């Protein structure tokens, strides 16, 4: 989507009757603006509000989220001071929101991690997490377009809560896991079901990792700003119709268990993204199945985290 198109969409979102309340919650974003060179790091002072440019507060801060997270508590304390300083806010219509994390070392995904999603498929609840991945090249911003690949005729939606790692670790205990979490964001795990379920030896990777198949955003909401990540309403709408509606309390394996499990196998780095699974209501299990088509608009929303809106082209 052209930058001007993204700005128009952001302006449209601002005009929606969604709640906007300035808050002390820490909502970190990556953004671009016409008067600024390259990507910048910012704060969204309220869900649906404008953006505070962190570089204007402290020019020594990193310009990317991964570098920022790598500086740990020192960088976060600067952002907290900036939030309290009541700095000028760039209007939402003047900025282009990028994914809150771009080019992470890894994007880890979890299959069949909602009890109600397992019931939908008539399969048993997993006894161990089912792990797969997406390439980081699939990540796009919260209002970017999802491109239908000509290789697939069965592209489907999946709203998910994503965990963003803030501290490096290996063999992390579940009791220590939250110390390694920076925060949470909304993810859309776009899925080509033909490639996931029938092609490529039924390995899921290719069906999950086409370009644009991982919209993220709108903000990285820090863990101390989320009352309980495992008790949040989560929903997906296609062309305004609710197709998924559940709660993160339906997750089989919570954030702490997932981090402990995954870190047995790989080192987790700041900026790594873990998609924690999707609730029921995906298109492939409808009768008859329903898939995304050109012109559709998908909204993925999670309580306290926000909403991302992606047009299908």
Molecular structure report:
The protein is of the alpha+beta class and 313 residues long. It has 8 helices and 17 strands. A hairpin with a 3-residue loop joins strand 16 and strand 17. Mean pLDDT is 91; it is low at 11-23. GO terms for molecular function: metal ion binding; oxaloacetate tautomerase activity.
Query: What's the helix count?
Result: 8
Mean pLDDT: 91
| Largest β-sheet summary | 11 strands, mixed
In N-to-C order, the SSE pattern is HEEEHHHEEHEEEEEEHHEEEHEEE
Outline:
Residues 106-313 form the Fumarylacetoacetase-like C-terminal domain. The protein is an alpha+beta fold.
What are the SSEs and their pairings?
Elements: H1 3-15, E1 27-32, E2 40-43, E3 52-53, H2 54-57, H3 65-70, H4 73-84, E4 96-98, E5 107-111, H5 115-121, E6 130-134, E7 139-140, E8 155-156, E9 159-165, E10 181-188, E11 191-192, H6 193-197, H7 205-208, E12 214-222, E13 233-238, E14 241-247, H8 255-262, E15 273-275, E16 297-302, E17 306-311
Parallel strand pairs: 5-15, 7-12
Antiparallel strand pairs: 1-2, 1-4, 1-12, 2-3, 5-6, 8-11, 9-10, 9-15, 10-12, 13-14, 13-16, 16-17
